[in-house]
């Protein structure tokens, strides 16, 4: 890399906009054909301000794309059994095509039990073990939204994955683990790193593709980025800071996602796209 | 390593025997307490000689451990729907505690659809997406038998996993992928390699723990084994040859599984142990 090298930015904002536009067209087509607009149920337990804001934002995006949303707000005192009942009822409700349980659901609730109450065909947020299985085994199904967004970005920028060394930093059930499985399904050699990894910089230095997904500001030092690598920063920390030291990393990487405007906007775009896809599957054969 | 160094062998035969002995004791206790012996249903489609032999061997081992088995042999012409029906019926049969579908099931059948018809609480072979999810997320559940056997061997020999570099060669749904997830759950840094990996020897050279699980004779060269590494050979090829060049690898490794007598015997031991565990869970509260 020359001293003046600057990586190309991976424009998540633009790609997300195009996905949402296509999604709105599909939603309108389904509404017209069947008389039923795609519908996302959003479930929120408690009143954590950040979660309230996220859900409101997602519902506003739905509305703009011609997707109905039905909001179920539950008190913070909700038990696991009550939440499971709510999600089971939504799973059986033919008016609802996709289900989003805003998480974290807070202490005292078994989040995994709640996720598993979502029917796989309505799991448009890709949080169930079934969806993790389909992602892992390369089968049709919904993907976790942020991992799905990352894969679309890689595809959009023509990043070759076969035989490449991909390093995923982070191993959460809806981000690190599934994105590693999606990369593996596309024939990358995948290394999972995490808080107990002995020498993270040494592993990052070998990576053709780095996916940072831990939520620790500037955990990945720019000087550890291999020249010409592709850097995906799925971290989002206070002050618009990612998990990667962007300023240094961009002098070495070939492609890099900015924070914000990289991975972030992709998550909702995939959620909307999958909701309409779910509606299309469930309304298949319906004629309005 | 000195020129005369020889790795300690990881004795799967001995460990498997001890697991089966403990399993027989547990099976007898359940039989006595509830009046019901643990029961494994074995399902075989077609008459592939190797599969017939495997099923016969598993049933003989069950009998020796005080586990009943019920065999369902289906013709090679069986459809996916018929196989799913059979497995669904066994999933609902209170007399059956564990279900083993001998695989590969042969062409013309959707193996994944068949696996998914097995109830998670009877998935003692660890083949469902639900079991893959519980393995991946560190939740209680049954494990795939060979990966489970590998983890027991590592535990038996006191192999520290936290922060170690583990390299898994192979990515099948019931061997490579789950063993990687089990290693990750125990805080290893895990790299998945496979047929498209660009420079396998270079990656193996960095590994503290190598798990070879592809079924290609001597794919892993002994001289690529890091001195002091732990080598697990889950390959089994004609002529009792593993995926690792054993003779050279043992001059460098600290611990190594022989082939045969390493990983092989562990698979059935875990199957039997999980069958009795399933029976214990399902008979909980029953008093004979």
TrEMBL record, chains A, B:
Per its record, the protein catalyses: (6R)-5,10-methenyltetrahydrofolate + H2O = (6R)-10-formyltetrahydrofolate + H(+); (6R)-5,10-methylene-5,6,7,8-tetrahydrofolate + NADP(+) = (6R)-5,10-methenyltetrahydrofolate + NADPH
In this protein, which residues make up the domain named Tetrahydrofolate dehydrogenase/cyclohydrolase NAD(P)-binding?
144-282
Q: InterPro entries of this UniProt entry?
A: Aminoacid_DH-like_N_sf, NAD(P)-bd_dom_sf, THF_DH/CycHdrlase, THF_DH/CycHdrlase_cat_dom, THF_DH/CycHdrlase_CS, THF_DH/CycHdrlase_NAD-bd_dom
GO MF term set:
methenyltetrahydrofolate cyclohydrolase activity; methylenetetrahydrofolate dehydrogenase (NADP+) activity
Does the entry feature the keyword RNA-binding, yes or no?
A: no
Instruction: List the GO biological process terms.
Output: L-histidine biosynthetic process; methionine biosynthetic process; purine nucleotide biosynthetic process; tetrahydrofolate interconversion
Q: Does the keyword Ribosomal protein apply?
A: no
Its quaternary organisation is: Homodimer.
Per the entry, what this protein does is: Catalyzes the oxidation of 5,10-methylenetetrahydrofolate to 5,10-methenyltetrahydrofolate and then the hydrolysis of 5,10-methenyltetrahydrofolate to 10-formyltetrahydrofolate.
Identify this protein by name: Bifunctional protein FolD
Q: Which organism encodes this protein?
A: Streptomyces himalayensis subsp. aureolus
Phylogenetic placement of the source organism: Bacteria, Bacillati, Actinomycetota, Actinomycetes, Kitasatosporales
């Amino acid at each position: 890399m020359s001293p003046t090298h600057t990586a190309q930015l991976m424009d998540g904002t633009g790609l997300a906009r195009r996905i949402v536009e296509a999604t709105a067209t599909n939603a309108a087509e389904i509404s017209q054909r069947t008389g039923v607009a795609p519908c996302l149920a959003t479930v929120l337990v408690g009143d954590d301000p950040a979660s309230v804001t996220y859900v409101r934002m997602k519902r506003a995006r739905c509305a703009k794309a011609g997707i109905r949303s039905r909001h179920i707000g539950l008190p913070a005192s909700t038990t696991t059994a009550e939440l499971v009942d709510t999600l089971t009822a939504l799973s059986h409700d033919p008016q609802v095509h996709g289900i989003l349980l805003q998480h974290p659901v807070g202490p005292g609730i078994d989040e995994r039990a709640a996720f598993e109450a979502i029917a796989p065909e309505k799991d448009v947020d890709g949080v169930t073990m079934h969806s993790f299985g389909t992602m892992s085994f390369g089968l049709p199904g919904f993907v976790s939204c942020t991992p799905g967004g990352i894969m679309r970005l890689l595809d959009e920028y023509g990043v070759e994955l076969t035989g490449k060394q991909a390093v995923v930093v982070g191993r959460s059930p809806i981000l690190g683990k599934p994105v590693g499985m999606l990369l593996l399904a596309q024939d990358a050699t995948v290394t999972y790193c995490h808080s107990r990894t002995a020498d993270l910089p040494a592993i990052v230095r070998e990576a053709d593709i780095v996916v940072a997904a831990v939520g620790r500001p500037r955990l990945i030092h720019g000087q550890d980025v291999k020249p010409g690598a592709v850097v995906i920063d799925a971290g989002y920390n206070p002050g618009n800071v990612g998990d990667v030291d962007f300023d240094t990393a961009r002098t070495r990487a070939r492609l890099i996602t900015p924070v914000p405007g990289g991975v972030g906007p992709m998550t909702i775009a995939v959620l909307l796209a999958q909701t309409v896809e779910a509606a299309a599957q469930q309304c298949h054969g319906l004629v309005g």
